[in-house]
Write a structure and sequence with these properties.
Layout (H helix, E strand, L loop, with lengths): L7 H7 L16 H8 L9 H11 L12 H8 L3 H19 L5 H30 L3 H9 L3 E6 L2 E7 L8 E4 L8 E7 L5 E3 L1 H4 L5 E2 L17 E2 L4 E4 L2 E7 L5 H14 L5 H32 E6 L2 E7 L1 H18 L4 H18 L2 E3 L3 H6 L4 E4 L1 H5 L5 E8 L6 E5 L22 H12 L4 E5 L2 E5 L2 H13 L18 H9 L1 E9 L4 E7 L5 E7 L2 H7 L15 H15 L4 E9 L15 H5 L6 E6 L4 H9 L3 E5 L4 H11 L12 E3 H5 L4 H5 L5 E4 L3 H13 L4 E5 L2 H9 L2 E5 L5 H6 L2 E3 L4 H42 L7 H11 L1 H6 L24 H27 L2 E2 L2 E2 L10 H5 L15 E3 L2 E3 L14 H21 L16 H19 L1 H7 L6 H11 L1 H32 L1
Parallel strand pairs: 13-23, 13-26, 23-25, 24-25, 26-27, 27-28
Antiparallel strand pairs: 1-2, 1-3, 3-9, 4-7, 4-9, 5-6, 5-8, 10-11, 12-28, 14-15, 14-22, 16-17, 18-19, 19-20, 20-21, 21-22, 29-30, 31-32
Helix pairs in contact: 4-6, 5-6, 5-11, 9-26, 10-11, 11-28, 11-29, 12-28, 15-16, 15-17, 21-28, 25-26, 28-31, 28-33, 29-33, 31-33, 31-37, 33-34, 33-36, 33-37, 34-35
Length: 1051
């Protein structure tokens, strides 16, 4: 990462030539070489003149903001959709026809303008929503900017500048870091001021603990975790002071590379499976509409274009513009009927309702289509730290000395969070702690730099999670009996007990933790007048080798014999096999030469430090999600762990949570990121049966794994909480971030955020996603079958040559308003009980199978026959099925006359009687041919009412794909019954509100006419029940023919 591969003087001469980071590996050079290469000394820093020159070369130390799309381009992108283009074309044509027909005026004029205006309104709302989503999609890049440090302490011109804006740093600057500082750039550690330096870089590398840094160079090919002498922009100093040399700034830093990867991933975002299917449906619909419109045009061309044959050639052409316009309007109506205008709104509503259900389960969905995509998730790629584990360390077991030599006591500790009230210690002698347990409590409280606070109803740690867990243990252990200081502490203090111990025993000095020594010590002046060294050790075996005595519960300290040593080691081994991190506690009298101890392992006092006379062990456990992993296996969802942590730790965790079995051979399924990149057939490796583990994984490894999975046709969900996860969260189908422990970068890059940081919440969300998708299929099929019926109605009208039964604005009303509530209510269908026991659907599964298409073609044809049939019945029959239709006094005619209505003006002696509709009377004395124009209003109203009624009854058919209404009655979804009532209510509104009736060109119906509507509509239920019965009989055959292809794809 270090720059400086070219001579610095040459760089300054050229003025614009930047250093290639791969020519000089700062982490592999000692500090003097780095200073020489960057032309700087740690004592003086860069000169002001030098800084100005380097600013011209490198620019500011900040992340680039990509040029955003113009508002014009965003608007154009919203119309890059097949269905939207069809709707736009229909709206434009309708508007033109409204002007052409303007001379008609009156009711027809108003009606003609309503339809294009509504279509334009739909398009405008769709564009506004799309633009809003687009402008909010890239906040991850802004969040990355916020993670950068704002100020830095820099040495320049021999003077220390304590608060220089971090963006003004250049390669070669000398920076001082202290505890709590956020690292402002990628830097080489050149000198330690304190004895140790620890950096929390888990958000960048995925490591679960803060790592120690040193000035010693490492190998050139070291991975990011192995660069022990480098600190990276955006990470935090948790312990120690140091002097660093800036090697990379801005986009050249590791966090800058993540920024670039997020941009790249954002450019490769793919449509969700549902969006792909809807796009395919739109393209197919375009072809179908085109073909049907052309067919309707050809069928009716004889009505507006005629000619005579003279000498075998067509001559004397006659063209009727009025009739041509009329049949063109029919094709527009056909397009309106075929487009499910209400479908986008209903899908959005259903997904929004799904997000509310998921929010109740602590899964916060940021992007609506993610709800549907969850249903076909086949792979969950999970980070370990903070995801499969909570990253909240908690003590699970305490092992202490017994009442005599050769005995141990073991206490189980409940709770998994930093809340001291979360659980208790089983069989704990509350208020009666013996000397041995009191010493453990003192070490846990005093040999500890962490703090636990309550923030927004969450208990959070300031410091290392392991140390915070020990503080929480101290609180659960409680006060010793007879404490006089207990009453002086505030009741609201989260760490009351720990503060009591700190007041009783005064801490004098700290011997900082060192990863090589694996211990931390504090010198304490006890209230008894005795000065002791309290030690907390990670490597329990090492301290046990150097221990000479043990402390029993009566405070006696007999010698540590081999039997007890073996007993302790066996206990340590048993706990370590359970993926528990084990710590040892010890104490010793402060040696006389300890005053000069500086933390060096070569200091004479170091051996004394590791030779205490007491031993007690304490273990800290992580919270796991074994049941959630088992649920994934049942649901045929594979879990893959990708972590930046070391291989052995990750393998232990994976065995514990059930990704691997305890005694399973995982040599071929557990690889480091580097090892995976060297695998010849990477896709075949990812196809192995069972869980997979990739440790020491860098962002580029995660991105490559996700790319390979998606190329192999998998639907991938990725969980993560750190900056190192952000680019992969962008790239996958479903990015899932942690709500509590996750960085803002990860949250903004994600599609879903887990409010409780619980992996099992993902499994619950997948189940909800499957249920939502099943319900979406129900209402999509319902709406499409309705559109098929409308198309069939218009096609039959044109094919039979009868007057137009329904006008476009009526079809638009049905598609948007009356169909909307039942379709939305179908989203509340109860989920199947075995929904998480079935494999996920394939992303290429057809939304509409051939059998379902056949079913709805049959239903659609019936809708067409019913709506056209009732139109013909009104004109040609005085009664139907015993229902009297002559009460309004309208004139009857033969079917032949109705089919040739265009020739009405040539009929001799053609007369019609006036008829009534509600309070209106329609008379045609002046022009009897108006009976087929204005006079068709009653027949048109009957057709519209039959269409609405059939679609309401058809929504009952959509409750189940193959289940009969006998086994799944309508009341299993009461929302559907309510929606049907609302839709019928809306339909009655346009009947009986005069203005609405005028706009939609309809009139009120009498009781007999409503009985006719029901008689024609109800058979749709019987027809679909027969089709469902056939579907149940043939389901085994249909699914067996699909199984081989599914199996082949899995293999």
């Amino acid at each position: 990462m270090g720059k400086g591969g070219e001579d610095l003087v040459n760089k300054q001469t050229n003025g614009s030539e930047s250093v290639k980071s791969d020519t000089f590996h700062a982490w592999a050079k000692d500090d003097r070489e780095c200073e020489e290469k960057f032309g700087v000394s740690c004592e003086k820093g860069l000169t002001t003149e030098e800084v100005l020159k380097r600013h011209q070369i490198y620019g500011l130390n900040e992340l680039e903001k990509p040029e955003g799309k113009s508002i014009f381009k965003l608007i154009l992108e919203q119309f890059n959709d097949t269905l939207v283009c069809i709707l736009l074309a229909a709206a434009v044509i309708s508007f033109v026809l409204a002007f052409v027909d303007g001379e008609e005026g009156g009711e027809m004029g108003i009606t003609a303008f309503v339809e294009p205006l509504v279509n334009f309104l739909i398009l405008i709302v769709n564009a506004i929503v799309g633009i809003w989503q687009e402008t909010n999609a890239e906040k991850a890049l802004e969040a990355l900017k916020e993670i950068k440090s704002q100020k830095a302490t820099v040495m320049r011109d021999g003077n220390k500048i304590s608060s220089l804006p971090a963006k003004e740093l250049v390669p070669g600057d000398i920076v001082e870091l202290r505890v709590g500082d956020k690292v402002p750039a990628d830097m080489r550690v050149v000198a330690l001021i304190s004895s140790t330096l620890r950096i929390e870089q888990g958000s960048l590398t995925g490591e679960s603990e803060a790592v120690s840094k040193t000035t010693k160079p490492v190998e050139e090919n070291a991975d990011i975790q192995g660069k022990k002498c480098m600190v990276f922009a955006g990470t935090t100093v948790v312990n120690g002071n140091c002097i660093c040399l800036v090697t990379d700034t801005g986009m050249s830093t590791e966090i800058g590379r993540v920024h670039s990867q997020i941009q790249e991933a954002a450019q490769h975002e793919e449509d969700t499976p549902l969006k792909k299917k809807l796009n395919e449906f739109g393209e197919a619909l375009t072809m179908i509409i085109g073909l049907i419109c052309a067919l309707v045009w050809l069928i009716n061309v004889k009505y507006f274009l005629s000619w005579e044959y003279v000498d075998g050639w067509p001559k004397n052409f006659k063209f009727s513009f009025e009739k041509c316009t009329y049949y063109f309007e029919i094709t527009v109506a056909l397009a309106v009927a075929a487009i499910p205008e209400g479908l986008p709104a209903v899908i959005t509503t259903c997904l929004a309702l799904g997000t509310r259900k998921m929010a109740q389960k602590n899964a916060l969905v940021r992007k609506l289509p993610s709800v549907e995509t969850l249903g076909c998730t086949t792979f969950i790629c999970s980070d370990k730290t903070g995801t499969l584990t909570t990253n909240q360390m908690a003590v699970s077991k305490l092992v202490a000395m017994g009442s005599r030599i050769g005995t141990l006591r073991s206490f189980s500790v409940e709770g998994t969070s930093f809340d001291p009230r979360d659980g208790k210690i089983e069989d704990w002698p509350a208020g009666r702690m013996d000397a041995n347990l009191q010493m453990i409590a003192k070490i846990a409280a005093i040999c500890n730099d962490a703090n636990v606070e309550k923030s927004d109803n969450q208990f959070v740690t300031r410091g290392m999670p392991t140390e915070a867990a020990l503080k929480v243990l101290g609180e659960k252990m409680g006060f010793p009996e007879g404490s006089t200081k207990a009453s002086t502490l505030a009741d609201g203090d989260v760490l009351r007990c720990c503060r009591l111990w700190s007041e009783l025993e005064q801490r004098l000095a700290t011997l900082e933790f060192d990863r090589d020594r694996k211990s931390m010590g504090v010198m304490v002046d006890f209230s008894s007048g005795r000065k002791l060294l309290l030690v907390k050790v990670c490597a329990v075996e090492n301290v046990l080798e150097r221990s000479t005595h043990i402390q029993l519960l009566d405070d006696s300290t007999p010698e540590l014999d081999q039997y007890l040593r073996d007993l302790i080691l066996q206990s340590l081994h048993d706990l370590s096999m359970g993926a528990l991190r084990c710590l040892g506690f010890a104490y010793a009298d402060v040696p006389s030469d300890f005053a000069t101890y500086d933390g060096s392992e070569h200091h004479p006092a170091h051996q004394e430090l590791l030779n205490p006379s007491n031993y007690s062990s304490i273990e800290s456990n992580l919270t796991f999600v074994r049941q959630a992993i088992a649920d994934c296996r049942t649901a045929v969802i594979r879990v893959m762990v990708i972590t930046g942590d070391n291989k052995s730790t990750a393998e232990a965790i994976c065995r514990e949570i059930g990704v691997f079995e305890a005694d399973e051979d995982i040599s071929t399924r557990s690889l480091t990121g580097k090892e995976f990149m060297d695998v010849q057939d990477q896709k075949n490796h990812l196809r192995q049966i069972g869980g997979l583990l990739f440790s020491r994984a860098e962002p580029k490894h995660k991105q490559e794994i996700v790319r390979l999975l998606k190329e192999d046709g998998k639907v991938v969900a990725m969980t993560g909480d750190g900056v190192n996860d952000a680019h992969a969260l962008k790239l996958v189908d479903i990015g899932v971030a942690m709500g509590i422990s996750g960085t803002e970068v990860a949250k903004e890059a994600s599609d879903m955020v887990l409010a409780d940081d619980n992996f099992s919440t993902i499994v619950a969300a997948v189940g909800e996603g499957r249920s939502i998708y099943n319900n979406m299929k129900a209402f999509i099929r319902y709406m499409i079958s309705s559109n098929i019926g409308e198309v069939a109605s218009i096609f039959l009208t044109a094919a039979l040559g009868i007057p137009e039964g329904m006008i476009p604005v009526q079809l638009l009303w049905v598609n948007l308003v009356t169909d909307g509530p039942p379709a939305t209510a179908l989203g509340f269908n109860p989920p199947d009980k075995d929904i998480m026991k079935k494999p996920p659907r394939r992303s290429d599964d057809s939304l509409i199978t051939p059998w379902i298409l056949f079913r709805y073609m049959v239903i659609g044809m019936y809708v067409g026959v019913a709506t056209v049939g009732v139109f013909i019945i009104w004109y040609t029959h005085s009664s139907f099925m015993g229902i009297d239709l002559s009460q309004d006094g309208h004139s009857l005619m033969s079917y032949s006359q109705l089919a040739n209505w265009g020739q009405c003006s040539s009929w001799e002696g053609f007369k019609v009687s006036p008829f009534t509709a509600g309070s209106q009377t329609f008379s045609f004395d002046s022009n009897p041919c108006e009976y087929f124009h204005q006079g068709k209003i009653k027949a048109s109203t009957l057709s519209l009412s039959v269409l609405v009624a059939i679609e309401m009854f058809n929504s009952l058919n959509a409750l189940s794909e193959d289940g009969s209404l006998v086994t799944m009655p309508p009341w299993v979804n009461p929302w559907l019954l309510l929606a049907m009532a609302v839709s019928f209510g809306l339909h009655f509104v346009i009947f009986y509100v005069p203005f609405m009736a005028q706009v939609f060109g309809i009139v009120p119906l009498n009781l007999n006419e409503w009985l006719l509507v029901l008689a024609v509509s109800l058979p749709v239920i019987l027809i679909d029940e027969v089709l469902k019965f056939v579907g149940r009989l043939t389901s085994g055959y249909r699914y067996s023919t699909r199984a081989p292809s599914a199996k082949q794809k899995t293999e």
